[in-house]
Design a protein that fits this description.
The complex is a heterotrimer of chains A (470), B (387) and C (432). Chain B is mostly helical. Chain B contains 15 helices and 2 strands. In chain B, 59% of the residues are buried. Chain C is globular and about 60 Å long. Chain C starts with 22 loop residues before the first helix and ends in a 19-residue tail after the last helix. Helix content of chain C is 67%, strand content 4%. The chains are: A alpha/beta (470), B mainly alpha (387), C mainly alpha (432). Chain B: Keywords: Cell membrane, Membrane, Transmembrane, Transmembrane helix.
Chain lengths: 470, 387, 432
């Protein structure tokens, strides 16, 4: 979408408007061609008023004329039925209204085509309703709308035509009356079977127990709301769900990176709800962060150093204040061998490795000490197929040693390959815990918030897929 | 890093060295231009540039070669010159290590000046009030200076960790608070030299002075080298240094790995202040140009705090690099004095050269553009020091 | 065509947005109140150390219309002012003060603190406190700070941290003195000073915007460069020829007819160097530029959210360049004040840290030109007071007053009087 708006240059291909091919070197050219964009992260200046934001870039002369600009805001606002207060500061507005401003900004520029990039991700249900109404009225006005979302219900509610994309390619077209199950199938696809030959789980006693956990994100929104579940030693519980439904915050709260608002976290019976990351790590929690580049390693550090990042003060690697470089290097050589880390030397910076090898370093670090619980988020994101298989095998091996594994994944392939049980999260709440052989379509529906029983019924009612012609 | 580096790392280091060398060359060229245009005797010769080009070019060559020749002579031309360079370099190395340590933890300590002032106040005070046996007196005075610097730096770390106050602003402001505090102290009976009304403290006891080895070369220089060794050990060989480097390079990952980021911030700022305090100690307890210790006064520490930033930048925040950078700038200062007396070129040219060198080093792309043979390294971080 | 009613998508309870005092505002109110109560208490305690009556001379010996000297009892006045301050502080703490009432209460507290403090410090002195002198000195000392603060405000609103106001001052002061000496023309000297300020600003822009050098480090190095170059040229060229190269004319005082005849205020405010009037004008101009013009809107947008500015077709880098250069113009005027606005001559490092006080004014003024100018005035007031108290033999070291601008700034950035937040993208290079 950034290509369409001139923010990125395409590698190949063309954009055709009214029959003629166009290229946009910058957003200004895209705007001139009538393309307006409603960005997922709003392109609004927080400390400006609504009017100032709408004026920016089209001030109409060297001296500002706030009166005229305010009138224009009111005009647009009433014409498209989007009430806004022209003199309010954007930072004081609720997110839904901020989005209205973002839409008005595009309309103020006489956009003929509007691109909405995941516009509902940040909205409350009421705000989503308002947005739907606005999009319908814009369509009725003759505007072309591209609505990018992964929420099936929204698609069916609003779309006139549906194009399904997966990994940068179009995988199919559908009509809005297609069933949710069909859409879900098209979305998640029937990819290569990556099932590891794993033995059935032998769950022992509960090692990780979570009770009524409530967690707020940095903006203060409740993103994990009353979650309760248990993970037994020797089993893999997969947390499935669409990105941004509270999984990241759940993992951070388990580690102790965010203090939960309320609720209890017990690892082998010991409360970790108020523990620091250092305390949870020492107590035996392995942690594979979701964003490995930001949270998983220090890019400029060597592989050897990253392999002891959270164990640098352990007796194994340090005597008092002094690091034991011999032990650190031996450890690195051993892990490199054991985890098949493809690197010239363990003293190379980790940034020189491929994504899969970086992830091997992180997993090697976490699995090289006795664990009670392993929390792994998106462990194979951006990793090549060969490495995925290896990482999966190691996670299963860790399970078989009696560790309770909590695996957060948005990839259904991965969930199917690894899970002994599947917990589906939607907007911070638990939709259900189901067996891993639950049909994909049902899982897809659950990830959209439909409870298991209902999802099973919907799925059963749509046996064919004659609507698809992709 | 403790381990052997691969060829890629060596290539990067080669490029970094080339940039540094290129920067020095460019700075010397710019300094030469400045010298020529500001000398009426030389610039008037340029009227004959087309009729008798030998005149202006000869005058230019004479001017520049005299000045730089004197600079070189004063910096490394004789044992005396070397002693003076080492003497000038010692406080620069200490404060440069302090600023560099901050950089490694991602902290911009612009407050070396204030921390050095406090170091000099404490060391001088202990030096002239106490009466202790020789070796013990020096040690007590040094420790006093270290603690004073550490407190002044630790305040910054504390404010940053607890309130989020940006260390750049806080350190800049604390520099001036320290200066005013010194000015006030020098007006109090505890510090004012008996019989004087101008702000100058008593001379420190001989028992507290750094012993002189040869000319100005004194124990202080070896204290500075030892400090560099200690910082190297801290950063490369200790668990605390590991945490400092991790927090500096990626605080999010450090926090996820269980390191206490606020505490590391406070400790690093205190250690950084401690090293800058040691720079102040050098001025208070080391010999002056006249080979006896200079009493505490307003300008005692000069501009060491700001020079230290350039030293740390040029040394890429690494201990060994900082020692070389400190020696280079110490040599510039020592040579500048010779340049002033032999070639009648003002000492302040050294400051210009120092600033220009760092300016060029900070913008490798510019050096690469001006000197086509020099390739900018892939990583251009001046303050990270992890390449 | 879709037939699904969007309402069917509703599955959550509605969210109510309550308008209450935000946590930040509450914290700011409470800490300001606490600070005022503490100040009042300190003042009341100090009052007991007063040494008799305090005299305020409203006019100096040369005034055409002599004004009386007011004598107040030192202890009682300081005590009363202390209580007044504490009461205002309590008002803040209680949360009963709202809107403009709060502003006025703060102004009252400010005056009470200043008046009570001077009454205490000046009590028992042989000489009366020269009020006219204080006012006039405040204006004089604040003028370069105002210009410097405007330079900082312009740069930082565009997202470029400016630690090198000091360096811009220094080079401009030098250039003004030299060009003034050579040409004998004040106009030429002023123009040269502005050009020098712009040249230094251009270095800041070049290295920060094009070469992405860390802006704080860059500022420090540029200050060093300015000190080095002016010092070198001074030693090499100016000092040996000081009769011809360091004898610039001084800007004369210009009395504004009518206004300058007002007793007390007239001589202090309306018989000043033209740079003083220019500073007032500059504050108005910068405020109008930033908040009333297309250029200002764009400058502020690239300092807050450069990506947003880019998406509406604004050239982020060019806008930043412009803001930094215009800032250099004002820093140049401020620098000129140290030489041709004062004695006419240049000495090495003549600006003695004023550039950093200007930076403090920018932060204390929360990056707003008018507020920053008022902070510059406050810092000028405090600096002048410090030198006055020295001559009054006050029981307080003048150095403590001179620390005040710096300490106040630390208190401000530590969030004790409300979070002072700069432009969001301040100091962040824009790389697309």
């Amino acid at each position: 979408m950034n290509v369409l708006y001139g923010l990125l240059e395409p590698d190949d291909g063309e954009i055709i408007i009214d029959g003629s091919p166009r290229t946009f070197a910058n957003p200004r050219e895209a705007m001139a061609a009538g393309i307006g964009m409603v960005h997922q992260h709003f392109m609004l200046v927080d400390v400006f008023t609504v009017t100032e934001n709408l004026m920016l870039g089209r001030e109409g002369g060297p001296v500002l004329n706030p009166g005229a600009a305010r009138k224009r805001v009111q005009e647009l606002s009433s014409r498209y039925g989007m009430p806004v207060e022209p003199d309010a500061l954007v930072e004081d507005l609720p997110v839904g209204v901020q989005q209205r401003v973002e839409i008005l900004k595009a309309l103020a520029n006489d956009a003929r085509f509007l691109v909405f990039d995941e516009p509902t991700a940040v909205l409350t249900p009421q705000e989503i309703d308002d947005l739907m109404r606005v999009m319908q009225s814009l369509r009725d006005e003759g505007k072309g709308i591209v609505f990018i979302t992964h929420k099936l219900r929204e698609v069916r509610a609003i779309a006139d035509r549906i194009t399904v994309m997966r990994r940068g390619a179009i995988v199919g077209q559908a009509q809005p009356h297609s069933s949710e199950a069909d859409l879900a199938e098209l979305m998640v696809g029937r990819a290569v079977d990556l099932r590891v030959g794993k033995a059935p789980a032998h769950p022992a006693g509960t090692r990780l127990a979570v009770r009524d956990l409530r967690v707020a994100n940095s903006a203060g929104g409740i993103v994990v709301d009353g979650l309760s579940f248990d993970v037994a030693g020797g089993e893999i519980l997969c947390v499935a769900g669409v990105q941004g439904n509270g999984q990241s915050e759940l993992a951070d709260a388990l580690l102790g990176n965010i203090a939960p608002l309320s609720g209890e976290i017990l690892m082998d019976g010991v409360s970790l709800a108020k523990a620091s990351p250092h305390a949870t790590i020492t107590a035996g929690m392995g942690f594979v962060p979701e964003d490995r580049e930001t949270d998983g390693f220090v890019a400029s550090f060597s592989i050897a150093e990253n392999l002891i990042l959270n164990r640098s003060t352990d007796a194994e690697f340090a005597t008092g204040l002094a690091l034991n470089w011999g032990a650190i290097r031996d450890n690195a050589e051993a892990r490199k061998e054991e985890f098949d880390i493809r690197a010239q030397s363990v003293s190379d910076p980790i940034s020189s490795l491929s994504g899969g090898n970086k992830q091997k370093v992180i997993l090697a670090r976490e699995l090289s000490r006795p664990l009670a619980v392993l929390v792994a988020s998106q462990p194979t994101r951006g990793v090549d197929v060969g490495a995925i298989e290896f990482l999966h095998k190691r996670i299963v091996a860790e399970r078989d040693q009696g560790t309770a594994v909590l695996l957060v994944s948005t990839e259904l392939d991965e969930v199917e390959a690894l899970a002994d049980r599947v917990l589906v999260m939607y907007r911070g709440t638990l939709v259900g815990i189901v067996p891993p052989d639950t049909p994909r379509e049902v899982l897809g529906l659950m990830m959209a918030g439909v409870p298991f029983e209902e999802a099973t019924k919907v799925e059963a009612a749509t046996p064919t897929k004659e609507d698809f012609h992709g | 890093m403790a381990e052997a580096a691969t060829s890629q790392v060596w290539r990067e280091r080669g490029r970094t060295a080339a940039i540094t060398a290129g920067s020095i060359v460019l700075a010397l060229l710019a300094g030469a231009v400045l010298m020529v245009v500001s000398d009426p005797d030389v610039i008037t010769q340029y009227a004959y540039l087309f009729t008798a080009p030998a005149l202006p070019l000869g005058a230019t060559w004479a001017k520049v070669s005299n000045a730089y020749g004197a600079l070189l002579l004063g910096a490394i031309g004789s044992p005396n010159a070397l002693a003076e360079t080492a003497w000038q370099a010692a406080p620069l190395i200490c404060a440069g290590l302090g600023v560099g340590l901050g950089f490694r933890a991602g902290l911009f300590n612009i407050g070396a000046q204030g921390q050095a002032i406090w170091g000099s106040i404490a060391a001088a005070y202990l030096g002239f009030t106490l009466h202790l046996p020789p070796v013990i007196h020096v040690i007590v005075a040094v420790i006093g200076g270290l603690i004073a610097g550490a407190i002044w730096g630790g305040i910054v770390g504390f404010l940053k960790a607890r309130t989020g106050a940006h260390e750049v602003i806080v350190t800049i402001m604390l520099n001036y608070v320290a200066l005013q505090a010194l000015s006030w102290l020098l007006s109090t009976p505890a510090f004012l030299r008996p019989g004087r009304v101008d702000p100058i403290a008593p001379v420190i006891a001989e028992t507290a002075a750094f012993p002189i080895l040869f000319r100005q070369l004194n124990v202080g220089f070896f204290v500075a080298l030892a400090a560099a060794g200690a910082v190297w050990w801290l950063l490369d060989r200790s668990t605390l240094g590991f945490a400092i480097r991790a927090v500096g390079a990626n605080p999010a990952a450090a926090g996820t790995a269980g390191m206490n980021v606020p505490n590391v911030t406070i400790i690093t700022m205190a250690l950084s202040g401690l090293l800058c305090g040691l720079a102040g100690v050098q001025y208070a307890l080391g010999p002056g140009a006249d080979l006896v210790a200079t009493p505490l006064s307003i300008g005692l520490v000069g501009t060491v705090g700001f020079d230290a930033i350039t030293v740390a930048l040029l040394g890429r925040s690494k201990p060994l690099g900082t020692v070389f950078a400190g020696l280079l700038f110490g040599g510039l200062h020592a040579g500048g004095l010779a340049m002033q007396s032999i070639a009648q070129t003002p000492l302040t040219l050294s400051t210009v050269l120092q600033a220009l060198i760092v300016l060029f080093v900070a913008a490798p792309a510019l050096v690469g553009a001006l000197l086509p043979k020099v390739k900018a390294p892939a990583t251009t971080s001046l303050v990270g020091g992890e390449a | 065509m879709t037939t699904v009613d969007p309402m069917s998508l509703m599955d959550d309870a509605p969210i109510h947005l309550e308008v209450t005092e935000s946590r930040a505002a509450r914290r700011a109110r409470l800490s300001t109140g606490g600070l005022l109560v503490a100040l009042g208490a300190v003042l009341a305690l100090l009052a007991f150390g007063a040494r008799g009556d305090a005299a305020f001379a409203l006019s100096d010996a040369f005034a055409t219309v002599p004004l009386p000297t007011i004598v107040v009892p030192g202890m009682a006045t300081a005590l009363m002012c202390g209580f007044l301050t504490a009461i205002v502080g309590a008002g803040f703490l209680s949360g009963k003060l709202t809107g403009s009432l709060r502003t006025w209460a703060a102004v009252v507290a400010g005056f009470a603190v200043a008046f009570g403090f001077i009454a205490w410090a000046g009590s028992g002195s042989a000489f009366p406190f020269p009020v006219a002198n204080q006012l006039s000195g405040t204006i004089v000392l604040a003028t370069p700070l105002v210009f410097g603060a405007l330079a900082g405000v312009l740069c930082e609103n565009a997202g470029v941290v400016n630690v090198s106001i000091e360096g811009e001052f220094l080079v401009a002061a030098f250039t003004a003195a030299t060009v003034g000496s050579i040409t004998g023309s004040l106009v030429a000297a002023l123009i040269a000073a502005m050009a020098a300020g712009v040249a230094m600003a251009a270095l800041l822009a070049l290295f920060s915007i094009k070469y992405l050098v860390d802006q704080v480090v860059l500022g420090v190095v540029l200050n060093l460069l300015a000190s080095g170059i002016t010092g070198f040229l001074f030693d090499q060229l100016i000092q040996p020829n000081s009769a011809t190269l360091n004898a610039a004319p001084q800007l004369p005082r210009v009395a504004i007819p009518g206004l300058s005849a007002i007793p007390l205020l007239g001589p202090a405010l309306f018989n000043q160097s033209p740079l003083v009037y220019l500073a007032v004008l500059a504050v108005v101009v910068v405020a109008l530029l930033l908040y009333r013009t297309r250029w200002g809107l764009r400058v502020r947008s690239v300092g807050e959210h450069p990506e947003a500015a880019d998406t509406v077709g604004i050239n982020v880098r060019r806008t930043r360049w412009m803001a930094v250069l215009v800032g250099g113009l004002f820093a140049g005027l401020g620098g000129a004040y140290f030489t041709i606005g004062s004695t006419g001559g240049f000495i090495k490092d003549i600006t003695v840290g004023n550039g950093f006080i200007a930076l403090a004014a920018v932060i204390m003024g929360r990056w707003h030109p008018v507020r920053a100018a008022f902070m510059a005035l406050f810092f000028g007031f405090v600096t002048q007071l410090a030198s006055q108290l020295q001559s009054l033999n006050a029981p307080m070291p003048s150095q403590f007053l001179l620390m005040l601008p710096y300490l106040a700034t630390i208190v401000a950035v530590a969030g004790l009087i409300g979070r002072s937040r700069g432009p969001k993208a301040d100091g962040v290079p824009y790389t697309k």
